[in-house]
Specification:
mainly alpha; 74% helix; 2 domains; DNA-binding; Tetracycline Repressor, domain 2; homotetramer; 203 residues
Amino acid sequence: MPRVQERSRARRQQVLDAALQVFSERGYSDTAIDEVARVSTTSKGGVYFHFPSKQALFLALLDEASGQLLERVEAAMRETPDPLARGEAALREALRVFGSHRLLARLLLVEAVGAGREFNAKLNELHAAFATLIAGCLDEAKAAGLLPECDTQIVAHAWYGAVNQVVVRWLLTGEPRRLEDAYPALRSLLFYGVFGPPRQEPR
Amino acid sequence: MPRVQERSRARRQQVLDAALQVFSERGYSDTAIDEVARVSTTSKGGVYFHFPSKQALFLALLDEASGQLLERVEAAMRETPDPLARGEAALREALRVFGSHRLLARLLLVEAVGAGREFNAKLNELHAAFATLIAGCLDEAKAAGLLPECDTQIVAHAWYGAVNQVVVRWLLTGEPRRLEDAYPALRSLLFYGVFGPPRQEPR
Amino acid sequence: MPRVQERSRARRQQVLDAALQVFSERGYSDTAIDEVARVSTTSKGGVYFHFPSKQALFLALLDEASGQLLERVEAAMRETPDPLARGEAALREALRVFGSHRLLARLLLVEAVGAGREFNAKLNELHAAFATLIAGCLDEAKAAGLLPECDTQIVAHAWYGAVNQVVVRWLLTGEPRRLEDAYPALRSLLFYGVFGPPRQEPR
Amino acid sequence: MPRVQERSRARRQQVLDAALQVFSERGYSDTAIDEVARVSTTSKGGVYFHFPSKQALFLALLDEASGQLLERVEAAMRETPDPLARGEAALREALRVFGSHRLLARLLLVEAVGAGREFNAKLNELHAAFATLIAGCLDEAKAAGLLPECDTQIVAHAWYGAVNQVVVRWLLTGEPRRLEDAYPALRSLLFYGVFGPPRQEPR
DNA sequence: AATGAATGAGTCTTCATTCAT
DNA sequence: GATGAATGAAGACTCATTCAT
């Protein structure tokens, strides 16, 4: 209601947007708060009004970014009842989101990684959240007798890592041109392994 | 023979060893050259005598570390003629090396990642080298009619990423207790996908 | 009006004043920004807030100093219509300014000289400005038929150098006690050469 | 006689030559002993064997350089009995030496100037030596009744400064193309002032 | 809310000098 | 005599953070 709060919130978002841009371009350590302030058309003090410290700003950004990512993926999964199809949907949506939000991808998969021990916990949360999502599908499929016994956690993390590395490669080398083009190969590997789908899989 | 050169080389190695320790504990940005100097029982100037800059030191370290890793994995592969068994060997050896060289693992898979754009190239080299190794196995196996057609590059990177993420998880959470315990699940996923080996595979 | 800007400007001037003192006492290279900060009762960061680098600070100082000097000399010349009398006035005023601003003299005539190639351009500007001033008098006097043909540029620079060296000697040896006492001899040399004024000096 | 001493002396000279080159290109502070060592095809230790410190090296260089300059000028003066002609000879020879030894000129007239208080004494020596040379001519001419009374010291220093500034201008701007071309104008100014030689110049 | 001047600790880097070999 | 590895003090510069206005 109060106009003032609205403005404040808008300002805050402005700062977060600038932070996404700058942090994902320069990395955590090489980013100066001054730069964030400039990009958000605010002042240094302005940034500090909304976030108590650089660390907190980065953390908030990670929160927002991973929240958005998870939300989108979860939404895609929610619409898919079949557990394995849900896994496919998650995979496809993840590639879609990363592919259309390069900055977010770079932030989460590159810049946040070596940024300092303070951020490992947050990153772990993200890893765990995704792993849990995937593990959920797997467990459900297993319960339905569709899958054999396996170490769900390991498989879930490996799955997640496979996707990430494809995204990282895209970020760093530009290949494949369209990230989503990696979907079929990824899907095939994760579902059927290197041997590919049995016999006459319709591709 | 020349005593002096030997000492110099030893000193250089001493510095690299210290650098591995400090960089992988604190990360690139949070590491002070002073700290590296102290750990190598040298002086700051001593470090700078052997390496022209912090960046160069880190780069040299990445070189050495990835060189060692690759060497070990390639050695394991060299002893295995069958292309698919070779892939397994690579996987197992990678887990073995990382599992017994935590610092090296942390350096390559965590600290080097967000350390700055200057290091992306070097990291890409490593990614590419591994992907090429794996892609070599896959292509050979395909040529032998053992595998169906697939996007080798994507699959190779995904494979590599799957392994890395399992290692990262181990680094950050300590699970699984022994990294090599992740081998069976990883191998199964990468070879047969989530559906696992066909029928009564002897596990 | 805006109080803040006023303070900022005052601070800036404070730093410049301190810089004049320290640079002209210790020279460019032997001056630490810390020292300038201390003398200006600011912090190192404060200095850097107003000047982007040591070099820029020194340059700004040279600008200010040579600006002041030129202004005073030009003012003295402006009041003197006769071209040759104007030359005398310039000479006398230069000695006056240097004589009462030892730091400025030392800065411009000693410390700035070997301070580095980056400052040569600025120094040249000063030389050129003075030479132009003097050359102006000479040319005007020539046009009025008071002087014979001569290489104005060389003469102007020589004139300027003659004055400077007398000032430098005063700076380094303390002689003559009062710089302005050098005026008659200098004036005589520059106007009439070593032979001095003809018999009953026309003047 | 002893070969060893000869070599040592040659080495020493090698270092001095390198020092002249490097110091006059980079200035005192921006010159690293390493650079001098490299240019003299010696090692850092080698330089320190012949000169106890950077300061001592620079001082020795100043000594050698001003010695050479003085020697040449004194030689030119020795051959000229008439006091005023001797002054002319000194002037001409100074321009000749500087004109054909740019590095020496730059060293003495630019780089040594703001190099630090430690070198002021040495520079003063040079100034005093030249002033004394010139003052000698003047005094002798005065004794012969050729010149009127004047403050010899001031005139001598001014004379010296006039020459120097012309040389400095040449060093910094490249004008006049050939330094010796400045001779006539300089000579005229110093002998007859801005009014130039009386009527039909005796020359 | 916002600004931007100010602080000062922290870092990389340079380099004169020393000295074992 | 000469080398070059090693030292450590010194210094420019950065930047997260604070705070008066």
